[in-house]
Amino acid sequence: MISVILDKCVGCSLCIKVCPFGAIKLVDSPRACVDAFGRGEAVGKKAVIDLDKCNLCGACLESCKFGAIRLDKKESIIKKIKLEDYKGVWVFAEQKKGKVQSVAFELLAKAKDLAKDLNTEVSAVLLGDNVENQAAELFQRGADNVYLVEDAKLASFCDEAYTKIIVKLIEKYKPEIFLSGATTIGRSLMARIAVIVNAGLTADCTGLDVDKEKRLLLQTRPAFGGNIMATIICPNHRPQMATVRHKVMKEAGIDKNRKGKIIREKLNDDALFSRTNVLQFVEEISSTVNIAEADIIVSGGRGMKAKENFILLEELARVLGGAVGASRSAVDSGWLGYSHQVGQTGKTVCPKIYFACGISGQIQHLVGMQSSKIIIAINSDPYAPIFNVATYGIVGDLFEIIPKLTEEFKKARQ
Amino acid sequence: MKIVVCIKQVPETTEVKINPETNTLVREGVQSIINPFDMYAIEEALRLKERFGGETTAISMGPPQAAEALRQALSLGIDNAILVCDRAFAGSDTWATSFTLASAIKKSGFDIIICGKQASDGDTAQVGPGISAHLDIPQVTYVRKIESIINGQIKVERLMEEGFDIIESSLPVLITVVKEINEPRLASLKNMMRAKKAVITQWTYKDLELNEADIGLNGSPTKVVKIFTPPPKEKGKLLEGTTEEIVRNLVNSLKGDICG
Amino acid sequence: MDYLLTEEQKMLQELSREIAREKIKPVAGEYDKTEEFPWPIMKILAQSDLFSVFVPSEYGGTGGSVMDLCIVTEELSRACGGIAVCYAASALGTFPIILFGNDEQKKKYLPPLAKGTSIAAFGLTEPAAGSDASAIQTTAKKVGDHYVLNGTKHFITNGGEADIYTIVAMTDKTKGARGASAFIVERGTPGFTFGKKEDKLGIRASVTRELIFTDCKIPAANLLSKEGMGFIITMKTFDMSRPGVAAQALGIAQGAIDIAIEYANERKQFGKAISSFQGIQFMLADMATKTEAARALVYSCARAIDSGSKDVAKESAMAKLFASDVAMEVTTDAVQILGGYGYMKEYPAEKFMRDAKITQIYEGTNQIQRNIIALGLIKESKKK
Q1: Helix C313-343 vs helix C366-383: angle between axes, to the nearest 10 degrees?
Q2: CB burial of residue A41 (10 Å; 0-12, 13-18, 19+)
Q3: What are the phi and psi torsion angles at A255 (to 5°)?
């Protein structure tokens, strides 16, 4: 449990500022400052923690310059492991239709850095059917080893079989760090694996670093819709697992001469057995350009006024080689399918350039796109909140501006 | 059929604001709501009951005030509500949360478990799959449609980045749902009245026969070491002038990023 | 102002407000344009049990209080007066059955109406019989164990969409108003068809249509009360329903104020929000004060009816008269505050003004209301 050591607390209120749960208050009545057992007789202002609100996140501990906050932790029954048995940085090489996805190359770049700091190797985990040909590129992009498991049943992602196989690999080879893209597949798979191997898992990281001495992975991720960032560690369990947001890290470059070792794992039928089966994959034509993958997104909102007007955005997107996105209100109006929706109830995107056309910028939309590198807002209302996050703001009539913009970009690209 | 929905009470994000002076979250007067994604889970549970019969139970792990979220679930038509609530659960990460919820779900009984795809405050999307792993049942995440349930087999569509998978699974199963799956209903007067009077079952860790060392902070492999506000974005530039000037100006500024 | 609503009424208000905000407001403009009947919204209202509030609990309702009906109608009207009237007109068509139906009729018709699986309409007005109900031409002739209806009703709200109609027809033309009787007619009865759909100034989400009876044979069991009671049934029904129209007007006025304040706070002129100008402030203050006065009157009247007051004709006429006049003034002022934008269809203010107008006309024009009030006053003075 968490408690304030009253003798040490000076009432500086630093802890109150960092508490993301609003659980700490300064109270100046001495009686109110006694701890849960009625001890203590503090005078002046002291911090008290409302245990109903406290989430034991420990942010206050970090902030207190006087060591006045204590957090006691009991030993879990999760059996203690020898941390030093675990070595190597692993990357899940997500493949679709036999092709490794670009997010894996981003992870390899990061894994190389981490492995260098830890003086260890980088390995990729590749599951699929007839995917051995993909190993070469994994090596060229930085993998030292590829753990390869091939079977017709693994051609497309299947939660249970993939989980069982990777759990077996982890138990056998004991990696220290295991990363995956925070994709649909990665998020489903890693969460299931982490529970089975008793490992900690941090979702949707935007930053990874390593504490060389303690060999800890420092995992930084946004929370509360990006309003705060949290750095998370996993001190006593291995592997240290994280899913990483797509497009945040740079893809690893190709070194044509780089080679590595393929470690092929044979598995029995039990490992391949699954209670869920993918019967069919249906590609949706309307989302030929996946907005989560796109480097440039041209999004429209209520200000687009009608479904027909999205053709303006499609043209601009085509010229720029980007995808078309939409705000919730545009999707709710039936102007575009849900797969195009950016925001809290849609997709979180992080392209290089994001055009927000006729989008007012409700917080629910902002949390889905505010980490884009460059944001261009076009809106007739100068007070629209979208301008608060925009790199370039244009107040004006988008029906006049966008066609001209398309025209200019066309010229610029020639 | 026993249908279980897991819900979480979260702060309403529209209300999450940063105090520009102290750079901290402004929490005063922040409304608590049911996690928006869980609203789709509740609606789907109600629809499953309408289609196939059965009983619906909402389970939430949280502080005593999370009972309000459960009451709201009841007012939407959910039959039973269970609050998993104990100070010993505080500090749970997704491992410990899914472990605790799985224990409660086991106690309540289940054929199908429905979760929202993720919570709007934590955004991890890990608790759903975690529960199914703890219960050792199959899972299908990001479900956008439940096609059928016949002879203990469920057929669903899973939303993928470029389309959707049609997936069949045996029951019991855990699914997490996306917004596309339905349009949540609003409460009904009769259910609101029922919810107001309803007694919400509360389970502590002792009721779940759990060991204190496996739950809450103790049972959580991960640990938050630092919380900070991201550096504020550089102030944007308002482009002014005639449309032609603005357009030329913008294209010039972006040239490097677009052609590079 | 605190009107000391009960816990349940507060719940009802909150629920109706949420439906209005989440489900009605976003589509109100579209229905105003297309004039389609808002079935999806009616389904939502039904699912949320809102049709149950005006039906007694022994017939599947949740109480049967006029106050509850007013609360719902006000909140719905705040988002769309047209959609609100589709709802309130079902109450209007249901009241004759609640007030004068026998147990058998109630058991048959009220439960689906309370559930919202059926909706109702009230058929009184005819081309030549508006305010003068005694001029009704539609006849009902008794033949064995049936009545045969002939004639045309027009301007019937929910006409063609409703399942259950209460129809006033003459069983004995020689007796004038005392020769009128009321009947329950189900949609689909042979000889019962629908005529022209009206193209209206406002409340365009609601449907207003002709009902045509051509040798339409209905069972004698569908007669409400006794022959000759038609006029009394009508008057008593209107006494109950008028607060509902008043609440509709009230909601429209409140909705217009909401828009006006929001706009006044956002719109900047001369470098300041226009809400900081005294001219605008005074207008807003007057709008809000009048609306609050109307609310006090409407609620008091609804409560008087619910507490069993017998003679409420005068009070309910006052509430309808006052609230609808206020609605017209307030919505006109709201358009004024929005200036040029207020006049444009792209902004919602002008719709409230169009919607408000009907509340001064239907269920007894405001001139008729004044008649009722004056008659009440004279009657009371003579009693003293």
Answers
A1: 150
A2: exposed
A3: -115, 100
B96 membership: H or E segment, kind and range: helix B94-108
Distance CA A23, CA A32 (A): 15
- Beta-carbon contacts of C24 under 8 Å, excluding residues fewer than 6 positions away, are C41, C76, C79, C80, C83
Q: Report whether A290 contacts B161 (CB < 8 A).
A: yes
Minimum Cα–Cα distance from A343: chain B residue = B120
> How confident is residue A48, by pLDDT bands cut at 50, 70 and 90?
confident
3-state secondary structure of B28: coil
Are A234 and B221 in contact (CB < 8 Å)? yes
- Tens digit of each residue's pLDDT (9 = 90 or more) over C306-349: 998 878 899 999 999 999 999 999 999 999 999 999 999 988 99
User: What pLDDT was estimated at residue B113?
Assistant: 98
Backbone angles phi, psi at A379, to 5 degrees: -155, 145
Nearest CA to C331 out of C319, C344, C349, C358 is that of C349
DSSP secondary structure string, A347-387?
A: B----SEEEEES----HHHHHHHTT-SEEEEEES-TT-GGG
Structure tokens at B72: 């709201």
Judge contact between C358 and C252, C-beta under 8 A: no
Alpha-carbon radius of gyration of chain A: 25
Task: Read off the pLDDT of residues B33-61 as tens digits, 9 standing for 90 and up.
Answer: 999 999 999 999 999 999 999 999 999 99
Tell me the per-residue pLDDT of C55-78, one tens digit each, with 9 for 90 and over: 999 999 998 799 999 999 999 999
**ipTM topping 0.95:** no
Of A405, A378, A406, the C-alpha closest to A391 is A378
Distances (CA, A) of A4 to A10, A61, A64, C172: 11, 10, 10, 89
Report the candidate in B67, B62, B64 with the shortest Cα–Cα distance to residue B97. B62
The sign one gets for the Cα dihedral A31, A32, A37, A43 is negative
Question: Do residue B243 and residue A51 have CB atoms under 8 angstroms apart?
Answer: no
Q: To 10 degrees, what angle do helices A398-413 and A310-320 make?
A: 20
Digit-coded pLDDT (tens) for B105-123: 999 999 999 999 998 888 8
> Are the C-beta atoms of A169 and A125 separated by less than 8 Å?
yes
Catalytic residues of C: 363
Contact: B139, A192; criterion CB under 8 Å? yes
**What is the per-residue pLDDT for A165?**
96
- What ranges in A227-353 are assigned the alpha helix state H? 269-272, 310-320, 328-332
Specify the amino acid at residue C190: P
Q: Which chains touch C (3 or more CB pairs under 8 A)?
A: B
- State the Cα–Cα distance between residues C267 and C273, nearest whole angstrom: 5
Q: Is A64 helix (H, G, I), strand (E, B) or coil?
A: coil
Q: What percentage of chain A reaches a pLDDT higher than 90? A: 55
3 state SS of B54: coil
Chain B to chain C Cβ contacts (< 8 Å): 37
Q: Which pLDDT score, from 0 to 100, does residue A343 have? A: 87
- Mark yes or no for CB contact C49/B189 under 8 Å: yes
Q: What is the DSSP letter of C22?
A: I
Q: How far is the C-alpha of A191 from the C-alpha of A11, rounded, in Å?
A: 40
* Distance from C-alpha of A118 to C-alpha of A87, rounded to nearest angstrom: 9
- Per-residue pLDDT, A37: 53
**Mind telling me how many Å the CA of A260 is from chain B's nearest CA?**
31
Chain A's closest residue to B255, CA to CA, is A412
